Every structure is written in structure tokens, then in C-alpha cells.
Amino acid sequence: MILTFIYMEGFRFQELTHLRVVTILMTFIMVVSVLTSIAIIRRILMATSVLKVAAKVIGEVQALVVFPIIPFGILAVFYMLWISVFLNLFSSGQVVQNDCHSNCCSYSLMEKRVICDHCCGYSIHYTPHIGVAILFHLFGCYWVTQFLIACSSTVIAGSVASYYWGRGEASPEIPFISVFSSMKRLIRYSLGSLALGSLTVSFVESIRFLLESIRRKLKVSSHAPDNWFGKAAYQSSQFFLMCIEWTIKSINRNAYIMIAITGKSFFGASSIATNLIKNNILRIGRVNVIGDVILFLGKLCVSLSSAVFAFLMLDTHKYKSAHNKISSPFFPVMVCWALGYIVATLFFGVIEMSIDTIILSFCQDSEEHGTAQYAPPLLIETLSDQNEMQRFAQGSH
To answer: For this UniProt entry, which segments traverse the membrane (predicted)?
Structure first.
């Protein structure tokens, strides 16, 4: 009885420790969020107009709310098929008995007796063709993932761009027509461009993976560079590849938007997007930075709400009884927080893509007509006002 009492007290102490850690973490996150909001309150007010327009677009084109479920479901089916093919390839090697240089004994399940000959184990040997097939299969998984993400982004951008360039004319009777039209244009005209963009990202990511594998092998085999020059060269190469990867992903994202707007090829859309960003860097940065902060706070609120709801549910009498009692709610609460953040990221990505599409559409509209003719009045009032730094930059040219 005494040992049981000590054991239960230990569990209670551990549970209180977990709750204190979670409380401190949530308090810290809340304080940082509040201070960040106060520090950027003026810029938040400047960016709310774009968020209002994006919310209006999503409210009119209601299919955008549930559209992320489609690519997510396609990815889930693809991963199941991919895993089955990968297991088939992985098991296609030839089982070869290892060379035995010492006497050993082991129990044979087939012969049901102890055998002291040739018991050094087995290994799988792959032919070069199977090895290449496995590498191509791994590369194809990442490529298809990036391709489906690109298709999803382009469909969302096409739906929002149709609403923008149509001056907000959406059919209330058929709220899915914009999404279906965007999917039709994607399948008919833009699949090759998206495949090329996703291939570029996959290729750069593969190079990073190979370099990381080489680094790990050198570290294990004690051949890692000990001098400062070797370490600096390695860290610089990693940072350089990360910068290239981030730049390519950013260019691809904006290129997908311009593909949806203009219907041009991947390189043509990338050139247009780069020029638009270069000519409107302050206008775009003023909204994007604040928009990213607001969306991050939104994801944080959704995930923390899920965690709080899970904790309150586990704190009821049902989960404190002897039959259903859990030792600590820490792990279930963290799982709910992670799932809430993933779901929030999935759906907030629609808003993020809508904001980027609206901004680039506004910039394209301004480049073509001098002043934006298709933008809503609220958007014109916010984005047409250029600050002194931008006027100075234009005057210097």
C-alpha cells in the first residue's frame, strides 16, 4: 500500500510539472503575441484592407473553403500507393548469406535445431537497376508532392484572380464555378509549367539531401573537416543552398500566381512576377510581412484553442476515474495542438495565397493601366498611397 501511494504521488507530481511547463509556455507565447501586436498595430491597420478583400473573395467563392481537402486527399491516396510500391522495390533484392569468419551457433527455425555453421546472418544485395529505381522512386515522391502543391496553389490563385479581374462578379447560385474553371484551365494549359517548377524545387532539394548525407557519412567515419576553413566552407555551402531553395520556392509561388493570371509559360510567368516584385517591393512588403504575422497569430490561436479544449475534456471526471484514468494529459494535449496547427496551416494557406494573388493582380493592373482599374475601392485607397521612401526611390531613377 505504501509503495502504491508513493507511486501515485509520483504520478501526480509529474502531472503537475507537465501542467506548469505548458502553462509557462502558453503564457510566454501569449505575451510575445500581445507585444508583437502592439508593436505593429499601425501596420496591421494598413494591411487589414487586403485581408478584408481576401475574406470577401473567399466568402463569395465558397468552394475555396473546402478546396484544400481535395489535394490533401489526393496526396493521402498517392502516399498509400507510393508506400506499397516502395515496399515492393525494397524487398526485390537478393538475400545473400554473410561471410562467416568465426564459429558461432544459432537456433534454426526451419530445421528446429541449433546450427553452428554459417550463422553470421543475411543481408540484401540490390542490383544497380533496383538501386536506381529506389532512388528515382524517392525523388518522384518529392516531385509529385511539390507538383500537387503547385496545382493546388494555381487553382486557388486562378479562382481569386477571376474574381479580381471580373470586378467581383461571382455567381451566387454556382459558388464552385470559379474553382472548376480554374481547374479546367490548369489541366488544359498549365500542367507542363507546374511540372517544370516543381521539378526545379525537387532538384535543388535533392542536392541538399545528397550534401547532408555526405556530411553525415564523413562525420561517422571521422573524416569531417577539423580546420576552420573546412567547417566554414561547409556551413557556407549549406546556407547558400538554403537561400537558393527559399528563393526558388518564392519565385515558383509567385510564378504559379502569374501563370493563373496571364496563362504564360513557367519562365515567362517567373520573369513577370520578378519584375512586379522588384518594381513594387515596398508596396508588396508592407502587406506581406504584416499579413504573415497576422496569419501566424491566427494559426497559433486555432492550435492553442484545440489544446485548451483537449485539456478541458481530459480534466473531466470521466478521465479521472480508475477505468479511463490517464497518467498525464501532456501528450494528448500536445498531439491536439500539433493537429490543430496542421489543419490551421492547411486552411490558412488559402488565405495566404489569396492575399498574394490580390497583391500581384493589383500590381499587374497598375502596370498595365497606370492606375488599378479593376481593384476594389478599399484596395485602391490602401495600396495606391506610396510612402516617402518609395517616392524617393522612384525620383532617384
So the answer is: 20-41, 61-82, 143-165, 186-211, 255-277, 289-314, 326-351
What torsion do the CA atoms of 97, 100, 104, 107 make, to the nearest 10 degrees? 10
Number of other residues whose CB lies within 10 A of the CB of residue 224: 14
3-state SS track over 16-67: HHHHHHHHHHHHHHHHHHHHHHHHCHHHHHHHHHHHHHHHHHHHHCCHHHHC
Quick one: how far is CA 228 from the chain centroid? 34
- Spatial distance between the Cα atoms of 28 and 56, rounded to a whole number of angstroms: 33
**Paired sense of beta strands 122-125 and 113-115, if any:** unpaired
Choose among 311, 298, 285, 342: nearest CA to 33.
298
Distance of CA 42 to the CA centre of its chain: 29
Scanning the structure block, which residue is given the C-alpha cell 471526471? 317
CB-based burial of residue 50 (10 Å sphere; 0-12 exposed, 13-18 middle, 19+ buried)? buried
* E strand intervals along the chain: 94-97, 106-108, 113-115, 122-125
pLDDT tens for the chain, 397 residues: list them.
554 545 455 556 666 777 788 788 888 888 887 777 676 666 666 677 778 888 888 878 778 888 888 888 899 999 999 999 988 888 887 777 666 655 566 666 666 666 665 556 666 777 788 888 888 999 999 999 999 999 999 999 988 888 888 766 555 544 567 788 888 888 888 899 999 989 988 888 888 788 777 767 766 555 555 566 666 766 777 777 777 777 777 788 888 999 988 888 888 888 888 888 888 887 777 777 778 878 888 888 888 898 888 888 877 767 666 666 777 777 888 888 888 888 888 888 888 888 888 888 888 888 887 777 887 777 777 776 544 344 434 444 4
Instruction: Give the separation between CA 157 and CA 262, rounded to whole angstroms.
Output: 11
Strand, helix or coil for residue 300: helix
Distance CA 186, CA 156 (A): 11
Residue 162 Cα distances to 123, 124, 154, 269, 350, angstroms: 58, 55, 12, 17, 15
Q: For 185-214, give the DSSP string.
A: HIIIIIHHHHHHHHHHHHHHHHHHHHHHHH
Dist. CA 357–CA 367, nearest whole Å? 15
Q: Is 105 helix (H, G, I), strand (E, B) or coil?
A: coil
